[in-house]
Design goal:
By secondary structure, the chain is of the alpha/beta class. The chain is built from 17 helices and seven strands.
């Protein structure tokens, strides 16, 4: 009986070893690379079109949404971070090709599968290239093109708003953009917004030349712009005086010092450092308030133009992003960094390309209700700006335009 028990134990042990061996044994790949991907250097989109595009500046811009010299400068900044080591088994994909795959993803909003066939790469390769390059773009470009402003930089922004948009003591225009995304799993209605689609929100402060100064991404689509602002790091730093804002300064041709302000639409609260339009009912009965709304709306248009430029250049914003929210946030950050990079590296002579395109006949829309909790000091600040725009800061055309706006 002892012998039978021993034989049974040996048999069970042998079976366990055999099962363990089968688990550890890896199935060898029948092929290292699929045949269709082996022709990447011959038929891949990058290798068939890049050299031709270099000789046609217009077509290059249409394909990359940037000029050739801008592409080279961007590649040089990222090269050390995205270049891989060539081995005896295969040639590495160059930094230029990696950046091209990523830019085409952002510019067209194509799926990974479509890019895989276009560039003759495996889907997993395309996936890893795009995610890695987008992360590198954020890490490398953000300290260069979107560093946290200091007092000197705020002063420059204020001068630009006055020189270009005739709005003194202005540090930026603030607004939010809903980015269309696929409903995340188990998220309920958190991302469902008032426009009846699922979204994550980009809250941005933009300077007078359409560059993003501060961005806050990842807020739930169901929240309002004002609610998102009050839960943002920007708002907390603004209220704790950690933004290094310039000291109060008199408006031109005046003596009383007023705070520097950010300008927004009716969705944002009126505060010591944020100006919003007067309610529509008040503006209808008082020309000076209508003029104030016109001047504020004219300057605030820069943030809407920046969102428009972002959407026009990167068509991924025109489609539903079928990506997890955390990756959507990286895409948004990367595109805002690329936007700033291209703004800062424009061809000389393009600086005023968009300034003349803002229509003076801006519709002055606003909520009829004013927040009754606004302090007298805050209301006084807005009234001082209103009085300035109707006196020493008046423009020749403003009264005529304001009377034509309903």
């Amino acid at each position: 009986m002892d012998l039978d028990s021993s034989d049974e134990e040996i048999y069970l042990l042998a079976r366990l070893l055999e099962i363990e061996h089968r688990k550890r044994k890896r199935k060898r790949k029948q092929i290292w690379v699929k045949h269709i991907w082996k022709n990447r250097l011959i038929h891949g989109e990058f290798h068939t079109i890049f050299e031709e595009l270099k000789r046609d500046s217009l077509k290059f811009y249409e394909y990359y949404r940037m000029e050739y010299w801008q592409f080279l400068k961007l590649t040089d900044l990222l090269r050390v971070h995205i270049t891989k080591k060539t081995t005896n088994y295969r040639c590495t994909i160059t930094a230029e090709e990696r950046l091209t795959v990523t830019l085409r993803f952002l510019i067209t909003g194509c799926s990974f599968k479509n890019l895989s066939f276009n560039f003759r790469m495996g889907i997993s390769t395309v996936h890893s290239i795009i995610h890695e390059t987008i992360r590198v773009i954020c890490d490398v470009l953000m300290p260069i093109v979107m560093q946290m402003p200091d007092e000197e930089m705020w002063e420059k922004v204020s001068r630009d708003f006055f020189n270009i948009w005739n709005f003194p003591n202005c540090l930026g225009a603030i607004d939010g953009k809903h980015v269309n995304i696929q409903a995340p799993d188990n998220s309920g209605s958190l991302y469902y917004n008032y426009k009846n689609f699922f979204s994550t929100v980009l809250l941005a402060v933009v300077d007078a030349k359409y560059s993003f100064l501060i961005v806050d991404v990842g807020s739930y689509g169901k929240n309002s712009d004002g609610g998102i602002l009050q839960n943002s790091k920007f708002w907390k730093k603004l209220n704790t005086n950690k933004l290094k804002l310039p000291p109060n300064k008199p408006l031109p041709s005046t003596t009383e010092s007023l705070p520097h302000v950010f300008i927004g639409d009716e969705a944002f609260p009126l505060s010591n450092n944020i100006l919003r339009p007067y309610p529509r009912e008040q503006a209808r009965t008082e020309l000076s308030k209508k003029v104030f709304n016109l001047r504020l709306s004219r300057a605030r248009k820069v943030v809407e133009c920046a969102f428009g430029m972002l959407t026009q250049r990167f068509e991924i914003y025109q489609k539903r992003m079928k990506i997890q929210p955390k990756y959507c946030d990286l895409i948004i950050l990367a595109t805002t960094c690329l936007h700033n990079f291209l703004i800062e590296n424009r061809t000389p002579g393009q600086e005023n390309e968009f300034h003349s395109n803002i229509n003076l006949l801006t519709a002055i829309t606003d909520n009829n209700n004013e927040n009754s909790s606004n302090s007298d000091a805050v209301l006084t600040t807005r009234n001082k700006f209103k009085d300035y725009f109707s006196s020493s800061g008046a423009l020749d055309w403003q009264d005529q335009v304001a009377t034509r706006v309903s």
